[in-house]
Fold each of these.
Amino acid sequence: MFGIYLHIPFCEKACNYCDFHFSTSFKVKNQLLDCINKELEIRNHELLGDVKTIYFGGGTPSVLSKNELVSILNQIKKNYSIANDVEITFECNPEDLSEKKLNELKESGVNRLSIGIQSFDNSVLKWMNRAHTANKAIACIDLAQKIGFKNISIDLIYGVPLFLNRNWKSDIEKAIQLNVQHISSYNLTKEKHTSLHNDVSKGKYLMPNQEVCSDQYQQLIENLAKSGFNQYEVSNFSLKGFESKHNSSYWSSIAYLGIGPSAHSYDGENIRRWNVSNNKKYIEGLVDNVDYFERETLAKFEMANEIILLGLRSDLGVSLKKIKSLLNDNQYQDFNKQVDLFKKKDLIKQNKNKLLVDSKSRILADYIARELFILPE
Ligand SMILES: C[S@@+](CC[C@H](N)C(=O)[O-])C[C@H]1O[C@@H](n2cnc3c(N)ncnc32)[C@H](O)[C@@H]1O
Ligand code: SF4
């Protein structure tokens, strides 16, 4: 059992905060999609079992035409065995979601939409350089629901600069009113090589401090909990039964195949690989049969550290049995000593064989994980 992630590296506009791999030039789109289909074929022997999840991420998958999407899905069907209950997620930008587009997605077999709304405040959207308005975002969700999508996720960003006077509480309320099944919400980060980074470096405005971001995060958690959303990961909230199967498999060390430029793959054990984050080099690699990826083999302590980090961030927790199997006696003893300190502070709970950070402390999950990290011997 494994998942397939496909990276579609094109966007109509560059958002001011985004450093994911994408290009606003579509010149090589046809060639690149041919290479995605080629990569799907040449890697069809790598992972065994059924494909449980397919995730189109980006960039902006909703720039694909119906023919382009169907050609990728057909290539997957031709080369892999697909589970009957496969989850097929498609990341979309609201401006692409016309009635025609949504019908095409439904007909093609997409059964989960992940829509990047970010904010319901038009001045914030304009500042981010998003191509949609708040009304367009609300209207496309309504349309998607009428067309029959029953598993919709939206993305929201909090922690935007204070000069924007964004009313975060009102944005959370609007998100809840949409009756979607899943909400992902991320703290705005200032990534290098973005216009946000450039503006802050020049002193045009400041990023909000940690206290402001934590307050907004707590508001999010409290309001979503009141409306029946379970926080099953630091940034992810869902109604019961609507957790993202694809992302949950990342957090529980299930294998995945990453196809397309910048996509990462994991064999479910100790090998990670990542494709080059450059459209031209990716195409050259596949056309000329030269390497277009790098690979690393994780040492056992590194595997343990990944399990700790991902497990503490989510409801799935950290399996002590798994950690023990990866460490020697000294390392496991040191790890347990640290765990005890956090248990005393009520920041870690143990449920049978699992370590967990509960929802109220989850903002600290990354910090706790780093404190528990195993060092090389
Ligand atoms: C890379 S985008 C791809 C999906 C789609 N193109 C979109 O914009 O919605 C996935 C999500 O990452 C989040 N994101 C990207 N860069 C971020 C940043 N610097 N800080 C916080 N969230 C970010 C946004 O919420 C976005 O919806
Ligand atoms: S947030 Fe989405 S639309 Fe904006 S640049 Fe990043 S990938 Fe493209």
Note: The mean pLDDT is 97.
Amino acid sequence: MKDRSLVRHIVIHQRIFDMWKYLLLLLLFGCNEKKANIPTVKETTIVLLPYEGFDTSLIPFIQRQIDSFYHCKVICLTSAQLPSFAYYKPRNRYKADSLLKFENRFLKDNEIIVGLTGKDISTKKDSIGDWGILGYGACPGSVCIVSTYRLLSSPALFKERFIKIILHEIGHNFGLPHCSNNVACLMNDAEGSINTVDKEKKWLCDKCRKQISL
Ligand SMILES: [Zn+2]
Ligand SMILES: [Zn+2]
């Protein structure tokens, strides 16, 4: 196992399945750099998976935003209970990598599953065994998880921040690494600060767009 810190991000090289040898994760987002099995934007259906307790009134907004950004078909599953094996009782939160394993059970061909939860989620960061995060996803891969828990303190900015994190995680699923071309590019490394997210626009720079043929 090899860990690589990218300020607000953490790269955790971790065996999950044979097809996933590495996961990169950060305070907000996750990705790695393996090139195989990359979902293609044109052929992918984005599947929303709201976990129990998630505010489902947000679903139409999320669907519209993903559709207008990636031009993918977006569907929504019925709510699922958070799996008990992902629960980390000492901090009353859920392990993001365990949630990704759970989401793989629902996965069909040409789909990306976006888990949505109001509960706190976490992962390992450097020497910190349990670090709270906003989102986590495979890069590339077909599953990610995004949490509203750390965003709810700013109602005015909540929806814009939340959708940026969702679009960023899906970008990782499509194989986009972090980007430093332009502070407005959605694939910036947030580097531990929500301010970085606020500088981003719902926009990908030319390099990122080309990479995923968007
Ligand atoms: Zn990221
Ligand atoms: Zn970019």
Note: The radius of gyration is 15 Å.
